[in-house]
Amino acid sequence: MSPAFDAFRYAHAHRREVVWLSQNTNHLVPPEVVRGALEEAIAERRYEGYPLGTGDPELLERIEADLGLEGMPPFLTAGGTEALYMTTRALLGPGDEVVASDPSYLIIHKFIELTGAKVVGPDIYRPPFRLTADAVAAHLSPRTKMILLIDPLNPLGSGYPREEVRAIAELAHDHHLTLINDVTYRDFSEGHSLAAPFAPEETVTVWSVSKNCGLAGLRLGGFSARPPLAKTIARFNTNDLGVNILAQVAARAALRSKPEWIDAVVRTTRANGQRVQEVGRSVPGVTAPVSPSRANMTILDIAATGLTPEAVQEELLRQHGVFVRAGSYLSPAHGGRFVRVSFSNPPEQIARFAEAFPAAMRALAARPAVAH
Ligand SMILES: Cc1ncc(COP(=O)(O)O)c(C=O)c1O
Questions:
Q1: 200 closest CA partner among 180, 225, 221
Q2: Model-level pTM?
Q3: pLDDT for 185-225, tens place per residue?
Q4: How many angstroms is it from 160 CA to the middle of ligand 1?
Q5: Which of the listed residues 23, 107, 153, 208 should we mutate to test ligand 1's pocket, taking the one with most ligand atoms within 8 A of CB?
Q6: Which of 104, 110, 149, 184 to mutate for ligand 1's pocket (most ligand atoms within 8 Å of CB)?
Q7: Which fold is adopted by the domain 32-257?
Q8: What does CATH list as the number for 7-30+258-367?
Q9: I need a labelling partner for 161 at 20 to 30 A (CA). Which of 36, 97, 307, 358 fits?
Q10: Taking the domains of the chain in order of start, what are their residue ranges?
């Protein structure tokens, strides 16, 4: 790997040619779903004024209906990321502990650590590749304040059976802990169960329209919780003047028609996921340990090939214009073993991956070890 290679800078500079399999974004929602609404809002120059501070009322209703969480009105933020920041900032302090997994979406762990709290929790890089209530219970201490349940889990693509969600939620309830239930990838997971109905007082459901509605660039998400908890979190709202008006317009349009297109998006995503795992496994030494993925991404474990994820990422991007993500930002313990590949993309882009991945692995294996 070249020491100064900045994959994101390179990929953005070449974005028209690059197949973007690196951020679990969704490129399958028909563009006409939001195009008309955005064009109308732009024609009306709605961006000149502030939106209604609390959010577009129809959008709020649609989010609430989509989640099906009554009595937990949605609070809009600039992406689920901001909701996660606010929740950790509002509820944690020095000395507190949060039970979370490794691998995980480590940006949340960073937010936890910024408050002075500490992440504790099991290494889940083995079956069932997710938290279990027993593992969570084993990590509880008098300092525990929160449990982080990401379902399905980025980066592994593992999902939680209803009974496990219930058992983890009951632990949160019994021990008076906040349960962050990050459901960013919920729509991709068949039979998904929200945690909030099992621990309504303790759960903060963090959701997003980035992945299900294919609106990542517009930055809209939020959280839903019972009013007393929501009020405590909302003290740290920085969007007093509302979140991006074009994002709200697009999300409202997408949610209006979601029942018409979501099944097709999920079907194509699943078929793509199988293909990506097959292609991965066709290379000697590569495994797809979490199969099938219940999200729109999978990891490919390349440890047995002796190659580094960074070398694979760079080779695929530079030589083939295919952008996958090295695992290091997703797992302190195992990030050196895997690349993550996302697949809510048109099948022809997955075909590009299918050609590029074996070729890139062959080319790297043939190079002198120093180049790895
Ligand atoms: C588990 C998880 N939570 C939250 C987010 C944040 O999404 P956004 O800020 O785009 O809503 C992501 C993005 O990749 C994620 O993987």
A1: 225
A2: 0.96
A3: 999 999 999 999 999 999 999 999 999 999 999 999 999 99
A4: 18
A5: 208
A6: 184
A7: Aspartate Aminotransferase; domain 2 (3.40.640)
A8: 3.90.1150.10
A9: 97
A10: 7-30+258-367, 32-257
